[in-house]
User: Which sequence fits this backbone?
């Protein structure tokens, strides 16, 4: 009896959780107006790709998809390199003030990004980076969270391994690149997924930096479209699907790494 | 300088330079900006900029719209935060229950909203909340209740947004609670059982106290995130009705990037930062007390 109740609760919770996403998917295959007939349909009567067609051909959402992809991919690649270099130094190189600098960085985690956004915008403006992809990308090239994640992992790499490589005459860069990085693959995968998802889903900063609709990322594009097409439920649902699906798929395939990172990030808090 | 220290400098430079130039300096500059009258004229010519000490703060603390935005933000965090944490704990207890089957499946399902794009799901919920065609009212009507106009009702708009936030975020804390639950030694439960403690007593006197540090972490992370409320009202209500869902960050965005009253907006941002710092300190204090 108790077991039945438990599974009833689990399934009910699952349905409530999935319903908005399933409805989004279902409505995106409806023909225009179908979701706003009374009573509204839950499933499309004649599923069609019309909304997706309109989205890509008439509204050129492919361009936003391209912007989002470029920004997320470039941010991810650079942040992997920069954060892993710094995380490695904090974990495995000895230098004066190391732990003090690291603690200072961690304390910065409570500072909301918005506090710096106004001056950051003025800085980007003076650098000529407003309304460019780089203006969106640059602030995400390194992150305290990323450095922390990598450092925690690299603390587990035995110091003897690095000393052995040094005795063999390997330079510091070589040790990092050929000894440490291959060992760090799992955590690099974790950080890659985190960074990709964060930049893909980010809304406020791209909204501020990008002024030209042709450069908008998917979230900015969607927020813009919903103003003009507030009545076109089915169209907006197709836009939401296009935006959500890539990150959801990425998560489903790589969730092992994603969950691992989440745990690592919470260990020390 | 030793070989290692030189190498460290090289390895740290890219990340630390990015963080310094594009995070730490802007944060400090943000404070500096908040004691100036930086506006549209200053963007044209910096010579129009004047130091006005705390005038922006005084103006803010005297303005109704600031208090509205500030209290809305607190409302969202104080009501939404604990609600999210409670939902997270409930989900973690269900998924982690010994008798539960298909655990990885349910864990994945409950976590899915976390990875979705906030703007996209806010748009989905905007339609789910539609008074006539929205599925939420359809469900209410099917069980004999009256549908309501969620996002246009001044009393219901914020609760509606809170529900979206709970749905979107509970999976994140759930994962951390599951890790916390799994780190509680079985012996503690056995000892409690031997002392005759039932399920509720075990939960109350073993599980909850042992989850103390997890609560602290989850509470702080949730509070920091929730005090930065922005995308949900931006997409779903534009801050309305009657400014009832206008958040502090939205006010900063409007003042700073729409009207270019950047000094004034920077003061909003700094007050938000103080609030977040206070919320973090408060939770740490409460945890120490226990």
Assistant:
């Amino acid at each position: 009896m108790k077991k039945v109740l438990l599974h009833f609760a689990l399934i009910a919770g699952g349905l409530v959780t999935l319903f908005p996403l399933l409805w989004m998917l279902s409505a995106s295959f409806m023909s225009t107006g179908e979701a706003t007939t009374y009573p509204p349909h839950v499933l499309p009567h004649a599923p069609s790709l019309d909304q997706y067609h309109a989205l890509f051909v008439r509204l050129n959402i492919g361009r936003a998809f391209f912007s989002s992809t470029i920004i997320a991919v470039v941010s991810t690649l650079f942040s992997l390199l920069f954060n892993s270099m710094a995380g490695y130094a904090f974990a495995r190189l000895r230098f004066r003030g190391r732990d003090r600098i690291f603690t200072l960085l961690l304390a910065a985690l409570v500072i909301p990004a918005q506090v710096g956004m106004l001056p950051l915008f003025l800085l980007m403006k003076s650098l000529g980076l407003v309304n460019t992809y780089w203006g969106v990308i640059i602030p995400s090239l390194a992150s305290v969270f990323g450095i922390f994640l990598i450092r925690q992992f690299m603390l587990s790499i035995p110091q003897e391994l690095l000393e052995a490589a040094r005795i063999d005459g390997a330079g510091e860069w070589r040790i990092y690149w050929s000894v440490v990085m291959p060992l760090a693959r799992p955590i690099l995968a974790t950080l890659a997924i985190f960074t990709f998802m964060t930049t893909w889903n980010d809304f406020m900063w791209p909204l501020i930096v990008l002024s030209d609709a042709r450069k908008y990322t998917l979230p900015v594009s969607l927020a813009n479209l919903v103003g003009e097409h507030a009545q076109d439920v089915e169209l907006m649902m197709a836009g939401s699907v296009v935006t959500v699906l890539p990150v959801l798929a990425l998560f489903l395939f790589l969730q092992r790494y994603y969950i691992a990172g989440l745990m690592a990030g919470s260990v020390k808090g | 300088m030793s070989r290692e220290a030189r190498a460290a400098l090289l390895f740290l430079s890219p990340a630390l330079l990015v963080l310094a130039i594009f995070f730490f300096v802007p944060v400090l500059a943000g404070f500096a900006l908040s004691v100036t009258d930086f506006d549209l004229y200053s963007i044209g010519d910096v010579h129009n900029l004047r130091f006005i000490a705390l005038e922006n703060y005084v103006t803010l603390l005297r303005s109704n719209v600031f208090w509205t935005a500030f209290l809305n933000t607190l409302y969202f965090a104080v009501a939404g935060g604990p609600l999210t944490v409670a939902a997270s704990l409930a989900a973690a207890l269900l998924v982690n229950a010994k008798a539960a089957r298909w655990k990885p499946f349910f864990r994945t399902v409950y976590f899915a909203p976390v990875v979705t794009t906030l703007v996209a799901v806010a748009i989905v919920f905007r339609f789910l909340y539609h008074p006539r065609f929205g599925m939420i009212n359809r469900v209410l009507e099917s069980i004999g209740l009256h549908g309501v106009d969620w996002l246009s009702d001044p009393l219901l708009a914020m609760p509606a947004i809170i529900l979206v936030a709970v749905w979107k975020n509970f999976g994140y804390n759930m994962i951390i609670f599951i890790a916390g639950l799994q780190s509680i030694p079985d012996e503690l439960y056995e000892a409690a059982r031997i002392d005759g403690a039932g399920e509720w007593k075990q939960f109350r006197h073993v599980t909850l106290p042992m989850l103390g540090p997890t609560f602290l972490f989850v509470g702080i992370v949730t509070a920091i995130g929730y005090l930065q409320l922005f995308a949900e009202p931006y997409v779903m209500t534009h801050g309305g009705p009657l400014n009832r869902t206008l958040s502090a960050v939205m006010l900063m965005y409007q003042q700073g990037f729409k009207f270019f009253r950047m000094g004034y907006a920077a003061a909003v941002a700094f007050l938000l930062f103080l609030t977040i710092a206070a919320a973090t300190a408060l939770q740490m204090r409460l945890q120490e007390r226990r």
Summary: The two ends of chain A are 39 Å apart (CA to CA).
